[in-house]
Amino acid sequence: MNKHEHIIHPPKGNREFKALAFEIFVQNGFSEFELASITTTLKAANKIRSSELFNWRFVSDTPGFVKGTTGCFVRAAPSISGHGFADWMIVVGSDRPNIYTWLNRTRSMSRRGLVTVLLSGAATAYIKATKITEGAITTHWHDAVVLRETNYYPQLTSRFSEKSGNIITSAGSGSTTELVMGLISEFLMPNEIAELASFLLIHTLRGNSTEQPKQISGTNNLLDYRITQAVKLMDEAIEFPITVQAVSQKMGFSVRQLERKFQSAFAISPAKFYRKLRLKRARIILVETRMGLFEVAVATGFSSSSTLSKAFREEFGESPREMRARYKASILDY
């Protein structure tokens, strides 16, 4: 027995078993936020249990020092095909995911009844590559916007995570801690789960079926409820914009009252705020897809590509074509 294989007494039943292992798969451009959420949660759970119930290792298709998206490094061992499977594999989201280096391992794990968790960018890459047609799938809402604009994914939901067979797709990001807590909850007593949430300063645990707080209108606790509802109306009418007058009528306000509330919350008028929402959506689609400029204009409620281009330059200081060319160049970093 090596130093990581301690005998643990689980809270349910009398069976003795080895410490439970996580394989954390990272690639260049990985999300440090998601990785830290995983390891911090597992470390805190071990602290509360006063035992090494959970252990983990970092692996990669490019072993050695792997660089995260904000410049941090993690030292990863090589991922060896068909060898050394852990109880769970978590693929951390990356801004440059290479699905084919971990997809075969995912399938091998599934055949063994082992679970793979795909976070944010990894989930998006999996959905694109596999063209999955059965079972529910999800990813971060930011990527879901692009997926829905470019293809038909009837199984795609806006929940925090979905399980299909032995594959869990997830929004990742800020929901990663709760997802990991959900994975390990069956090995902890209810009071230990509550203590873990308290230790991590999590006021309310969100289950996998919870809807993601999509865009700014989902952050109910940060804004006046009535402002949130007004923004939600705008969020839901990006392709076919509604007038500020229509928004104010639906909210039971006068236009002047709505303007005062937006000035108080955002220091901007409702019309300008709505325009920013549409331009941010256009920016997402431009950077993440190859859709034509006119198609992007139509998807974000602009009457023509020239109208979009003018508004885009005013907002971001460059044309849509210039921004797309800049991001295209940065992708080919070799």
What order do the helices and strands come in, and which of them pair?
Blueprint: E1 7-8, E2 17-18, E3 20-25, H1 32-49, E4 54-60, E5 64-67, E6 73-78, E7 88-91, H2 103-111, E8 115-119, H3 121-130, H4 141-150, E9 161-164, E10 167-170, H5 176-184, H6 190-199, H7 225-235, H8 244-251, H9 255-266, H10 270-288, H11 293-299, H12 305-316, H13 320-331
Parallel strand pairs: 3-4, 3-7, 4-6, 7-8, 8-10
Antiparallel strand pairs: 1-2, 5-6, 9-10
Describe the fold and architecture:
The chain is an alpha/beta fold and 334 residues long. It contains 13 helices and 10 strands. α2 links the parallel β7 (88-91) and β8 (115-119). α7 (225-235) packs across α8 (244-251). The radius of gyration is 23 Å and the shape is globular.
List its salient traits:
334 residues; alpha/beta; 13 helices; 10 strands; globular; disordered N terminus; disordered C terminus
- Shape, per Cα inertia axes: globular
Radius of gyration: 23 Å
- Percentage of residues in strands: 5-15%
**Global structural class:** alpha/beta
Q: Would you report the number of β strands? A: 10
User: What gap, in angstroms, lies between the N and C termini?
Assistant: 43 Å
Low-confidence stretches: 1-16, 329-334
* Main β-sheet, spatial strand arrangement: 5-6-4-3-7-8-10-9
* Portion of residues within helices: 40-55%
What's the tally of helices?
A: 13
